[in-house]
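Side project, low priority. Logging it here so it doesn't get lost.
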Amino acid sequence: MRPRMSDLTKEYSAELPGLAELVWAFAGMNPSHTIAAAAEIISAVIHQDKYSSAVQQQFALFSSPVEALRALYSVGFIGVKESSAHNFVFCHDGRKPDKEFGATEQLIVHPCYWIALNLTNRDIAETSASEIYDEYDITVRSETPEQRARAIGKMESELREIEIGLDGAVAFEKWCLKVIRVLFPGGLRNIELHDNKTNLQRRDVLGTNHGTTDFWNRILVEYGSRQIVFEVKNIIDLSREHFWQMNSYLCQDYGRFGFIITRGDEVALRKDRELSWVRELKSQHSKVVMIITAKFLLGLLNKIRSPIRHDYADDAMDKLLDVYVRSYFGESVTTRKKKKKA
């Protein structure tokens, strides 16, 4: 039975990063749970902040623990009990689950994994277990790529519903929090909303920079920024005041680097507006404020539809910083030795 578990994780870990962590969460338990109980088990796993970049990103893409259960259903690890029968049905051929997972519905870990996970069948009769559909001669393909695409598509549609300006400010803060958690799971940890120092009705996104990827190590080494602030502005155009407000944040653990997120269309800085203000901060205080937009973040999201490209956002941000250094500040860029990717 252990080879079956090994085959499962080897086959689908590339499409579903974190699969091993999800399945081993059920070890030593009853093989059968309600959806609500299983969701609690999964919640304890996906809400931790300790995994590799690819796994952390996948967990951030799950809209809920139930969404993670649906992914486990799609690879045949769990089955759901039919409402009108005693059988548990498992997903095959990458079928998208065509039913909602109700909180009181019953699921079961497939019996082929019970020994490997040390599961004890306390509540289910042997006759019921033997009636479980087992058609593993059919190839099981994961729907995880579709799950990632749906999650990214949902974030895109959510942004379209957020009104620009004060009325949509809170919703935009929450949207930015989720997107940053998805895009930068390797270098940033403990990402959360934090009260804005100058406006307690507004919140910024903060993350701790562990310097574990090339881009975030660059920010830590060159600018001394251990705590990273993303100041969220649900507006299109910035003013000089916004840059000097950021200047007041950038000290001590915040170092000399920060971000402002806007609803504008372009990340390119305009002459006599953002460009002059960014240069002013750099020349007078040696601080760098990078402007990124919701549209730019959406572009990064669409590049990570495949788990293989989980670190695309780091590379894109590194190139954008090179633009600031070379074009906006007229400085040379230090050649950096690339780290091994997780």
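Brief comment: Residues 133-141 have pLDDT under 50 and may be disordered.
Revisit when time allows.
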